[in-house]
Amino acid sequence: MKKLLANWGQYPALEANELSFRTPAEAAQIVASEEQLIARGAGRCYGDASLAATVLSTLQYNKIRAFDKQQGIFDCQAGITLDEVLEVILPWGWFLPVTPGTKFITVGGAVASDVHGKNHHSDGSFCQHVEVLEVLTASGQVLRCSPYENTTLFETTCGGMGLSGIITRVRFRLKKIETAYIRQTQQKAANLEQIFRLFEENRQATYSVAWIDCLQKGRHLGRSILMLGEHARVDELPQKFRKDPLQIREKKKLSVPFNLPAFTLNSYSIKAFNWAFYHKLRAQQRTDLTDYDTYFYPLDFVHHWNRMYGKRGFVQYQFVLPLAGSYEGLRQILEKISQKGMGSFLAVLKLFGPQAGLLSFPMEGYTLALDFPVRPDLFPFLDELDDTVHRLGGRIYLSKDARMKPEKFLQGYARANEFLDKLQQLDPAQKFVSLQRKRLHLST
Amino acid sequence: MNYILLLGATSDMAFATAKEFAKRGWGLLLAARNQEQLAVLKTDLEARYEVPVYALPFEARQFSSHEAFLAGLPHQPLVTALFFGYLGDQQKAQDDWQESSRIIEANYTGAVSILNLVARQYEQQKQGAIIGVSSVAGERGRKSNYLYGSAKAGLTAYLSGLRNRLQASGVPVITIKPGFVATRMTEHLNLPKPLTASPRQVAEAIYKAYQKKKNVVYVLPVWRLIMQNIRMIPEPVFKKMNL
Q1: From which residue to which does any coiled coil extend (chain B) (predicted)?
Q2: Are residues A22 and B41, on separate chains, in Cβ contact within 8 Å?
Q3: Contact A63 B188 (CB under 8 A)
């Protein structure tokens, strides 16, 4: 069926033919008959990955294959979303090994983007917890792969942005938890130097992330709040929660019902928000108990929050810098943002651990994620930021990217050619092609 | 434990309804033709809910098998919900009796055959509930799908009569009219969003209708209004409309 499709950033959008399947045989038939297509899950990546003139939605292929409650192993069709997985595993004392900031993505999408979370420095990315994948490849066959079996397919699928084929099955390991609560510690950092020091000092924390105010200048540049988290044990809960430690109360959801006018978010409203956010935390440090849903998915409570940016959409800009250049690079980039008044409503800073993989985004160093509403001067500005990022050996997150130049991609992803060579073996005729692949000229 | 029998369980609406009942502790009797797909659904439901799930072969159009099917159920269902149906190809069916009869049997005759038997049981036991998924397409024949529509019209009238009969036995009969639903059956159609329900919305409406012993339920209330208006168009006008 033809319809207008866009991912979470609402940019770009295109008229596309969306197909779906409920059995592998149906998927195989579609893959055989379409010349070019790309898999699409929940459409929660931000840019132009998972978009093409023909997309194959995995959302109807979303059944659980097995859930081992003793060993904590989850086996599912790839179109199931993380929130459905959580609903099933949490009551049994299991949690996702890695989760991004939204639970409305599919498991297949988590693999294709090799997503990371607040525990990247301690637990790595999602694919490090994957035991088995099945992928419908250009050959028309569903092939099983794992870190030990069909490794070429496994490597090109983990973080491969859907270019190796249609991910149909994922078996992954879960994380044991005692409660559905997180013990959260917040610490204020007056500037960039302080937040770097806090990250370094807290490498042993399971979860860590910082909210950063990118409109600050001078000695306040990099003012931020570090948020650390640990899964709470039962004995750390107040009495009233101990009876049902894996149960949390359902909260009211909000929604942005339509696209707000583009001027809603301007440097004044963002400044006011940032001021309030920073000063809401009165003490230098505070520890409290919060449920997992609020801790990991604060934005999921506002459905369609992407409409806040107006109908022109927005771009998420997330980059990572190698540890050595991180401080200097971030200082330069924050200065540029603040100078331009290109304030980002949401700005998140995190220290990654080391990372393997051909196209996986993380590397040891600092990553910053920003949202910018699309406006005419935005793209030249981001090209300027790209120069700084890549000069320092960093790279841009493909799942959020909608506008990077091809040469920057090759510069940032050192193993890109290795990836493309392997892809060539799997799909010589280039059947699995997204708008992103075209834009970045991903072919050998 | 209470059991619900879902006839045509591989449909998206049936699967969503299975979830609604299972999460409230109901055991599931899933009946459908495609055993391979049924097995996939059974595994999924067992992983999600701690309730017994049975996958049972059932052919709506093999009327003679229905008696044995009911007799062979592993548990007596307190609720029987009928989901099976077949949209078919109107154009093809006009000139092809095979297709026509398939539409009639899958939407009407098959339903009558199995529900006659279920009704007899429930009437004798003076308990149970029957839920039938019919269609707004049955309210007025249109050239684009009157074979499907007429079969559903038959089903709607059948359910209405059955409700009337079983009223005395305290057995509710609930007619569900989903309107447009985003399912496999309608995937290729460009449906207007405000008029289109998700399978989950249908399932929630079904559970609510069961709890409140409703008679006829339009899943999206706007459909009641739309159909009232459509029924009111005088036939001399209606027959000239391009519908």
Answers
A1: none
A2: no
A3: no
Residue A66 corresponds to which amino acid?
A: A
The boundaries of every CATH 3.30.465.10 domain in chain A are 64-177
Which residue spans of chain A are classified as CATH 3.40.462?
181-409
Assess: ipTM above 0.85: yes
B47 in contact with chain A, both atoms CB, cutoff 8 A:
yes
Residue pLDDT, tens place only, B42-57:
999 999 999 999 999 9
* Residue B13, token pair as written in the block: 């609406």
Marked catalytic residue, from B3, B148, B158, B210: B148
**pLDDT per residue as tens digits for the range A197-251:** 999 999 999 999 999 988 888 899 999 999 999 999 999 999 999 999 998 877 6
Which residues of chain B make contact with A87, given a CB cutoff of 8 A?
A: 48
pLDDT, one tens digit per residue, over B81-95 is: 999 999 999 999 999
Write down the CATH number for the domain with range A181-409.
3.40.462
Interchain contact A91–B (C-beta under 8 A): no
Residues of chain B positioned with their CB less than 8 A from the CB of A91: none
* Cβ separation A63–B187 shorter than 8 A: no
pLDDT band per the 50, 70, 90 thresholds, residue A284: confident
Q: Label residue A264 by pLDDT band (50, 70, 90).
A: low
CB contact under 8 A, A63 and B41: yes
> B148 catalytic, yes or no?
yes
pLDDT > 70 fraction of chain A, expressed in percent and rounded: 96
Interface membership of A63 toward B (CB under 8 Å): yes
| CATH numbers and ranges of domains, chain B | 3-238 (3.40.50.720)
- CATH classification for the domain delimited by A64-177, as one of 3.30.390.30, 3.30.465.10, 3.40.80.10, 3.40.50.2000: 3.30.465.10
Chain A touched by B37 (CB under 8 Å): yes
Partners of B53 on chain A (C-beta within 8 Å) are none
